[in-house]
Amino acid sequence: MRCSHLSRRALGALSGRGSLSIATSTARFPAATAATVLCQPWHTSALSCAPISPSRAFTTSSRTNLTLHGHSPQRLGPPGVIKCGNARLESGHDAVTASAFSARHRPRHSSQSCSSSPGGWRLSAGMATRTLPGSGIRIQHGGTAGSTTAAGSGNGSGERGGGGLGGDGSRGLPERDPDSPWMDRSVRVPGSIPNPCGPLASQDFILKDIYDVEDYVTGYGSPDWRATHQPAPYTAPAVMALVRAGAELAGTAVMDEMAFSLEGRNAHYGTPRNSAAAGHIPGGSSSGCAAAVAAGEVSFGLGTDTAGSVRVPASYCGLYGMRPSHERVDLRGCLPMAPSFDTGGWFARDARTLREVGAALLRFPRAPFTLRRWLVAADAFDLVDKDAALAIYQAVAGRKAVWEGQLGALQEAKVAAVEEGDTLLRWGRIFSTIQMHEVWAMNGEWVKQHKPNFGPGTRERYQQASKTTQEQAAAAIKAQMAIRHHMDNLLSWNGVLVMPTALGPPPALDSEIAPETRRRLVALGSIAGLCGLPQVTLPLVQMAEGPVGVSLVGPRGADEALLDLAVKLDADLHAAQ
Question: Which residues are identified as catalytic?
Fold first, then answer.
């Protein structure tokens, strides 16, 4: 929880008048004529704070102590965060006024300090220091086990974590098994203590290497991206929401390069093994998260989904997966791919855990949806492999009474019906055009500047993205608006679409995915993607080659109602076996 920004008048009234008691674990002051302080002792709920004025001493006290002294005020660069243990000095939305200060954080068993002396990385008396980019402020970290170590000159080489195929000692990355789902098992949220009373207490999770964790470089599935970026200044709010709910971060997961694949193969870091289908791919791009959850190594995994990056791996690995409504999960501190479609997403081995994780992650008040109608997406079934479509139909028909006991009769519907002759393949092309345009808008400058060594698939897709024009994107967005209007009418406030999650069981490791197959898979995922709809996938079918997921797609914003339905349906289906 954050207290709201104090006004300049309130700041002036506080100067020299003692302290202000704020009942929150995070106190933030805006930039005015004083520096701003943000103290984050995660183990306390009360903090005593007062503003810092130039050349005046200022002390905050709780179970951690932070003392700062202002000197010679001058304007710094862009907003930034300076961390010392569990306490941080943070600028407001405008740059703070302080150029030199000292701070000392004294936890029970060690001391750490920050100073304003210029310089790059250095290691002194067991302490690693670095300069925060753009600020001229040096951060000094304690020399305890697992702390940041110094190397290079602030170019990302001193981060903890990561690992190339077989490891990369030149970047400080540990050796790793190329078919392991783990990127870095050592990643932890600094200063966090799991909430023993939270709804996710005693549960651990793996994190896709696309979310920021303070002090670690977010790798994005690319060694070149990792080498050209700095450690994150703060932890993504979605990750903190899980920690506050009691879950413990167990480490980061391998992902497809730049999140630009649905296969789960990474030319640099390998392919996580799929324990649900040996010798088959796990699906991507949230591949490591799905593989680790399927293997029972963690309770759940937090990934992202743009074109199907949670839904497809959930289907291939026999998991419960959730792509929420667009913008229901906070994606600050998460690397963007195509912001119009990017969502958070998560995996679990049971429906109840899937719902509990959703309760921690979903923001905005729950909307009063009452789901009452089944709509079987006939044209979605036409897209998938015939054997898989038949297996799903048989699984649903065999438990027809259970399904109808939830929402009534199963009615077939054609989804792509915006215009005469409409098809889901057309929807997929519209989706891909917008996605390609936004991918290049997000990362094109970095690609042109650094010329990364992309692996197969990623290289070709970025080449295609670079050629997508503004005019093509504008036409696609216009078509998208008509599709969204159509789907809003089809589902209204009470409809639930039943459809396959993927084209069939997971392909073999040594198989090549044909472009036509990828187009069909993207088309299947474009229903929820284009319209910002929530989609739950359930592992209801097992074929000889591996699992096949069945999806429920609900109205936009009906995430909680859809998760409740998934729990009830799953329980009734298991009871009927």
Answer: 208, 285, 309
